[in-house]
Write a structure and sequence with these properties.
Helix content is 49%, strand content 11%. By secondary structure, the protein is of the alpha+beta class.
Length: 411
């Protein structure tokens, strides 16, 4: 979502005494400002304003754009697997029907009735390799909540189809692994993965009502961190899902009394989740939802600079310039040295001035001939005054003549 293609003109700002030309010392201070505190990705850089309209939700990224090298690698892998065990290629299950995610059972499990259910906590043994057989991840006991997108989609989707004790091979396109962003230095962008997975255990998730305040905060933080990971890969739909799950855990009813410290910690996590949720909603142009998330933060923390900034941006996108200006002024007052807020406010002031000029011109055209009408009325009035005197004089003369006739007749 882009906030504007052209750089704003030089606008004099009476509300900010700090110049836009900040010294290196000021920039160093700004980098440790309120905007950078407490959240993994919530730093208000200008890169966040780049047009990300070409980055659709995860389910639409890269569809039908699998490279020839990846296709050849998967085909050779399938042939190799079939050759080793003398197994037909049909044993590969096309999970989504697109050929991008396939699963094959290597060791059978305990039957279909032993499959885990969504919402359960499952434990698996995982080994992930690249197309050149390089091992990029190995975990003998990975535990996650099934269906919550706590892990890569390939694993989350396929484990739902596994039986207890089953070992399976999963061949996945990058779309359902680490996507176009990759993962640091060990998984390159658009890298397909092969997963070897063994389902070790499945159990019901803990009852949220029985969790202590600390346990709830830890659970919510895990969901939030996963949401941050999705956000950094531009998977905003999945990020929203993770933040919603974190907020659901925090807001669930409880049969346990919390200490003041636990209450404060839960509030802190809640505010972070709401701020991150608003950022994700703003990326997807969900303005009403983003405004609601910002307002929830400001109910708890009226001076939260990130919530103020994003609320101002939402109002700008909705064309509510007069409402957005005081919001961004309040954010700038909290941190006068922040160049991002300063630039956003400068652009907003110019837009608002342009809007007022257009409205003034429109009203002028609508009422353009109104000023000449009183003059016409005045001219008309000036011409009618002599006629009134004339009629009055005539009436008096006729009255005098009639009176004379009456007197003469009586005599």
């Amino acid at each position: 979502m882009a906030s504007g293609g052209e750089a704003p003109e030089d606008v004099s700002l009476d509300w900010a005494s700090t110049s836009l030309d900040l010294s290196s010392l000021d920039l160093a201070k700004a980098s440790a400002s309120m905007l950078d505190s407490g959240e993994d990705f919530e730093v208000l850089h200008e890169e966040e304003e780049d047009d990300l309209s070409e980055l659709p939700p995860l389910e639409d990224v890269g569809l039908g754009k699998v490279s020839a090298a990846k296709k050849a690698s998967r085909e050779s892998g399938s042939k190799g697997a079939a050759g080793e065990g003398s197994e037909p290629a049909e044993e590969w299950l096309d999970v989504l029907g697109s050929g991008l995610l396939k699963k094959k059972t290597v060791v059978s499990g305990q039957g279909v009735e032993s499959r885990p259910l969504k919402g359960q906590d499952v434990t698996v043994r995982l080994r992930a390799t690249l197309e050149d057989s390089t091992v990029v991840e190995e975990n003998p006991g990975l535990t996650f909540t099934l269906g919550d997108c706590d892990v890569m989609q390939a694993l989350d989707l396929c484990v739902q189809l596994m039986e207890m004790g089953e070992t399976a091979l999963i061949m996945s396109d990058a779309k359902y692994c680490y996507g176009q962003q990759g993962r640091s230095s060990d998984v390159s962008p658009d890298a397909a993965l092969t997963l070897e997975v063994e389902l070790l255990a499945a159990r019901d998730a803990p009852d949220l009502e029985l969790l202590s305040g600390k346990e709830k905060a830890e659970l919510a933080n895990r969901k939030r961190e996963r949401g941050n990971s999705h956000y950094q890969r531009a998977d905003y739909v999945l990020a929203i899902n993770s933040y919603d799950l974190a907020l659901k855990a925090i807001g669930s009813s409880s049969k346990v009394n919390f200490s003041p410290e636990e209450e404060a910690e839960l509030l802190e996590v809640k505010v972070k989740c709401l701020n991150n949720l608003a950022a994700s909603q703003l990326k997807l142009d969900h303005y009403e939802a983003a405004l609601k998330s910002c307002n929830c933060v400001l109910e708890h923390q009226p001076d939260n600079i990130k919530a103020l900034f994003r609320k101002g941006k939402v109002l700008v996108q909705q064309g509510e310039y007069s409402e957005a200006i005081p919001i961004l002024k309040a954010a700038l007052k909290l941190e006068p040295s922040n160049k991002t807020i300063h630039a956003e406010l400068s652009k907003l002031v110019k837009k608002h001035a342009d809007q007022k000029s257009v409205e003034t011109e429109m009203y002028r055209k609508m009422l353009g001939n109104a000023g000449s009408r009183p003059t016409k009325c005045k001219d008309k009035s000036s011409r009618t005054i002599p006629w009134k005197w004339l009629f009055g004089a005539t009436a008096v003369a006729l009255g005098g003549v009639a009176l004379s006739v009456v007197i003469a007749a009586r005599n």
